[in-house]
From TrEMBL:
Residue intervals of the HTH marR-type domain: 1-142
Protein origin, superkingdom: Bacteria
Classification of source organism: Bacteria, Pseudomonadati, Pseudomonadota, Alphaproteobacteria, Acetobacterales
Pfam families xref list: MarR_2
InterPro entries, A to Z: HTH_MarR-typ, MarR/SlyA-like, WH-like_DNA-bd_sf, WH_DNA-bd_sf
Originating organism: Siccirubricoccus soli
Designated name of the protein: MarR family transcriptional regulator
C-alpha cells in the first residue's frame, strides 16, 4: 500500500477563504446583487450582456449548468421581460438570447452593485494584496476550470 502524502498546509486556508467568499458575495442567499433574481439568473444576464446574443447551449456551457436548469431559468427571464429570444440567422431552429431594455437596465444595476462591492473591499485591503488579487483569483478560477474539464473528459 503506498504511503499517504502529508497534508498540504495550503489547502485549509484556501478552502476557508473560498467558503467565506461564497457567503460574503451572497451566493447562499435566495437573490443576488441587489436584485430579486437568483444567482444563476444574475450570471446569465451578465454573460449575455458581455458576450452578446447566445444560444441556450452556449450559456449552459459558460455557466457550467445542466441544460434543463438553463431552460427553466431562461423561460422565467423571457417571461419577466429580461431576455428576448430570436431565431438564429445561421439556423432558424436555434434561438438566440439577448437582453431586452429591461434586461440591460437590470444588468446596469447588477454591475453598479458589484463594482461598489469590489471598490469598498479594495479600500479595506493592504495595497500589495489588492495589487495581486485579480491575478491570483484568475489563476485559481482557471485551475479549477481545468480540473473540471479533466474530470468531465475522464467521466466521459
Amino acid at each position: 500500500m503506498p504511503e499517504a502524502l502529508p497534508p498540504d498546509p495550503r489547502i485549509p486556508p484556501i478552502r476557508d477563504a473560498s467558503r467565506r467568499l461564497v457567503r460574503e458575495l451572497g451566493f447562499l442567499r435566495p437573490t443576488l446583487a441587489g436584485t430579486e433574481l437568483p444567482a444563476s439568473a444574475v450570471h446569465a444576464l451578465v454573460e449575455i450582456g458581455r458576450a452578446g446574443p447566445l444560444r441556450a447551449a452556449e450559456l449552459a456551457e459558460r455557466l457550467v449548468l445542466e441544460k434543463s436548469s438553463i431552460s427553466r431559468m431562461l423561460a422565467k427571464l423571457v417571461a419577466s421581460g429580461e431576455l428576448a429570444e430570436t431565431p438564429s440567422p445561421e439556423d432558424g431552429r436555434a434561438k438566440l438570447l439577448s437582453l431586452t431594455q429591461r434586461g440591460r437596465a437590470t444588468l446596469a444595476r447588477i454591475d453598479a452593485f458589484a463594482e461598489a462591492q469590489v471598490a469598498a473591499a479594495l479600500r479595506r485591503m493592504p495595497p500589495a494584496a489588492a495589487a495581486s488579487l485579480a491575478e491570483g483569483l484568475a489563476a485559481y478560477a482557471a485551475a479549477l476550470a481545468a480540473c473540471r474539464r479533466e474530470r468531465e473528459k475522464e467521466d466521459g
